C-alpha cells in the first residue's frame, strides 16, 4: 500500500491549521473538500486499533468505523487488543510496518503509545485519537470524542434526579435529604475518566457542601473511587467492601451510587442484590447511574433496576472518525469544533466533540428505539 507522503500532510497542515483552529463549531470533522480525485481510496490503508472486545460498546465502535471506512473505499486493518497494553503496542507496530497510511487509535492506556506514535510520525502517518485522548506526545493530529465533561455533569444530574433533589429538567425541588451516596470513577489511565469525574463532582459538590448529599464512606477522591480498566468484577468487589465496612453488610442507609459506566453499574447492582438490597428501585435498590447504553443495562433500566445511563451514539462518533480520515487522505486538515479543552500534556489536540443524551426508563423509546439503535425485542431480552 502507498504511504501518505509526510511532506504533503505537513504542507496541508501548515496551510490550513490556522484556519481550522479558529473554528468553534462545525457540521463535521472534515474540511469542505473531502475528496481527492488523484488518489483512489483503495490505495489507502487505515489501521484501526480498538482496546477490547470485552465490552459491547467497543465491538460496536470497531465495526462501525470499519464499515464506514470500507464504504468510503478504504482498505481497513481492524485490531482489538483485549485490554492488554503490550498487545495494542504490537498491533500498532505491525500496522505501521505493514504500510498503514492513517491510524485511528482508541487507546487502552493513553500514556503507553509514545514509541508507536513517534514511529508513525516518522513515517508520515496521521494519527486520529478515538474517544480516549492519547497523552504525553505531540504525535496526535486530531481527536474525535464526546463532550466528556458534560457526560459527568449529566451523570451527576441524573443521580440527583433519581434522588429527587432535582427534577427531570435539572431544577432543584427543595428536597434537602440528607441522601447517602457512594462514588465510583473509571480507570485512571483513561483520560476520559478524569473529565467524567470533574464534571460530576463540580455538579455534586454544592450539594455535598450543604449536606444534602453525604458520601457514606468518605471516599471522595478519584484515586479512592477509581476502577482499573473499568472492570465490572473490580467494581463489584469494591461495592461489597463498602457495604461491609460502612453499611452493616447492607442494612444501613444507602440511597444512590454515581457510576461512570454500565459495566461498573452492573457490578455494583450485583453486589447490592447479593446483599439483599432491592432487587429493584421500587423495592429499595439505590439509584445507580451509568454510561454507554449497553443493552444489558438498558434492559435493567426498563425493568426498574438501574436508574439511568448516558447514551453516546457511537455511530456518529464513527462517522466523525471516517470524515477525519477522509480529510487526511486528501492531504487536508480536519476541522475541529473545540481547540481548547483537550491538552494531552504536550499539546492542545484539535478535537471534534459530539453531544450525549441521558436515558431513563422514560427515554428508552424516544432515544434508543426510535433512533434505530435498539429494537424493542433487544431491550426486552437484554441482548443484541
TrEMBL record:
Q: Which CDD domains match?
A: PBP1_ChvE (cd19994)
Alphabetized Pfam families for the sequence: Peripla_BP_4 (PF13407)
Checking InterPro entries in the record gives: Bact_Solute-Bind_Prot2 (IPR050555), ChvE-like (IPR049784), Peripla_BP_I (IPR028082), SBP_2_dom (IPR025997)
Where in the cell is the protein located? Cell envelope
May I ask which residue range the UniProt record assigns to the signal sequence? 1-25
| Residues covered by the Periplasmic binding protein domain | 46-332
- PROSITE patterns to which the protein is assigned, alphabetical: PROKAR_LIPOPROTEIN
Q: What is its main location?
A: other
MF GO annotations = carbohydrate binding
User: What are the UniProt keywords, alphabetically?
Assistant: Signal
A single GO cellular-component term on record = outer membrane-bounded periplasmic space
Entry protein name:
Monosaccharide ABC transporter substrate-binding protein (CUT2 family)
Source organism per UniProt? Xylanimonas ulmi
